[in-house]
Design a protein that fits this description.
This protein is of the alpha+beta class and about 190 residues long. About 45% of the residues lie in helices and about 25% in strands. The longest helix is centred in the last third of the chain and has 30 residues, at about 160-190. Bound molecules: coenzyme A (COA).
């Protein structure tokens, strides 16, 4: 479903929006970038990462404010095409952190994970990233410590007709809003 959150909306990212996703990741401040990627990475690394990552069965939910991508949650299967395990990663630009956006993105990501039959969701984050750990715990994550990083493993339940329907309704709503957004931009340009 499309959430209205802190003056923005959350919907799935389109493949055509790869550049926006890259720009968002490049805007992360140093600490957020380090937390997102588990260490310091260069601009070039991020550009390559975005090129590759969107082609790998990733489901990306994005948080938009006034048409600008300010937060994202990535969900990607680990291993084969019929994987039951997936990995999730989150990024929210500093002015929009600690306002519930991460919680809303995680909720959407868990629904998508459930509907794809992922039973185990890995969330890798640095040991000092208390906010991410707290966020994971809110959703009953079980956390185990390993090599200075935290891996949150969330057991996601089986899909139900209701959970699949909630995702479909959300996507449709997001699509309609996105079309409106494009139209209003066109109107502004032609005015
Ligand atoms: C980590 C991140 C995804 C969390 O999203 P967020 O929108 O900032 O978090 P929320 O506002 O939803 O808050 C999540 C929980 O953390 C708590 N929290 C907020 N700020 C905090 C802080 N500075 N320290 C500790 N806990 C904090 C909130 O109170 C909330 O818990 P509660 O609902 O029980 O009160 C976001 O801050 C971010 O993108 N950070 C940079 C990149 C990153 O760390 N990615 C994670 C690695 S994959």
């Amino acid at each position: 479903m499309q959430d209205a959150c802190e003056g923005g909306v959350i919907r799935k990212l389109w493949v055509t929006e790869t550049a926006q996703y890259g720009d968002h990741l490049l805007r992360l401040d140093q600490e957020s970038r380090r937390n997102r990627f588990g260490g310091a990475v260069s601009d070039e690394f991020i550009r390559n990462y975005v090129e590759v990552s969107l082609g790998l069965d990733a489901v990306i939910h994005a948080f938009f404010v006034d048409g600008e991508l300010r937060g994202a949650a990535e969900l990607r299967p680990l291993g084969s095409a019929f994987a039951h395990e997936a990995e999730a990663a989150f990024s929210i630009e500093t002015p929009w952190q600690s306002q519930g956006v991460g919680s809303a993105l995680l909720e959407r990501t868990l629904l998508a994970a459930r509907n794809r039959g992922y039973r185990l969701l890995h969330m890798a984050c640095l040991a000092e990233n208390r906010r991410m750990q707290r966020l994971a715990r809110k959703f009953d994550a079980e956390l185990t410590f390993d090599f200075g990083s935290v891996v949150g493993e969330v057991e996601s339940a089986h899909p139900t007709p209701g959970s699949v329907w909630r995702e479909i309704v959300g996507d449709t709503h997001g699509f309609a809003t996105a079309i409106l957004d494009v139209q209003s931009r066109l109107w502004r340009m032609s005015a």
